[in-house]
Amino acid sequence: MEIHGFSIVFYGHDVFPFGLWTDVTLVFTSLIWLRFYLNSQRSGSKMSMCFWGYVWLMHLPNSVYLFMEFRHILLQDGVADAREPMAVAVFGILSLMGLIMSVIQIYLTVTKVHILRNKQALSTVVLSFMATWGGVLGIHDLVSILGIVFPPLIIMVTIKVLTLEWIIVTLIIGTLISSLSLLTLKLLQVNRNPQDES
After folding, report:
1. Which residue range(s) make up the domain with 22?
2. pLDDT digits 0-9 by tens, 72-93
3. How far separated are the first and last CA of the chain, in Å rounded?
4. pLDDT at 11 over 60
C-alpha cells in the first residue's frame, strides 16, 4: 500500500477514498436497495417499488464489476502488472467475491420479486447479461450514480463501448454468471419451502 496525494493505492489500483473500497461497499449496498424494494413490495406501494427497483437495478452491475477485477491479473494495464503473489491473491479474492455476490443477488431477485417468480430461468439469464453489460460500462468509467441521475448517459457510453471485443467479453461473462445462477436456482429449489418466498 502506498499513499499518492489523497489516495491510498494498492499495486497501482486506488483503494481509498475511491477505488476498491468503494467497489466492495457498492456491492453490499445494492443488497440494501433490494431489501428496500422487497419492503415496498410487501407494503404494496407501487411508487416506492418503482423507485427502489430502479435504484437497485442500476446498482446490480457493481457485483459483476467487482468480479471483473481479475482483469488486473490477466492484463498488463498498469495494475499488478508484475503479478506479485499478494496482488494476485487480493484481486483473485475480490473477483471471487464479486462472482458469488452476483449469483446471490440474482437468486434473491428471481425468488423474491413477485413479477419475476413465474419466469425465474428467463429472468436469471436477462439479469445476468444486464448486470454484465453494466459491469462492462463500469470498466469504461460509467459510475452507478451518474447512470441513475442521468439515464441517457448509459446509452451514450453503450454506443462508445459497443465493439466486437466487448460484446464477446459480455457473452462469456454473462454466460458464466447466468449458468452459475441457474445452477444455484436449480439446487436451492429442491430444498426450498414455498412459504419462504412470501
Report:
1. 2-197
2. 777 766 666 667 788 788 888 9
3. 46
4. no
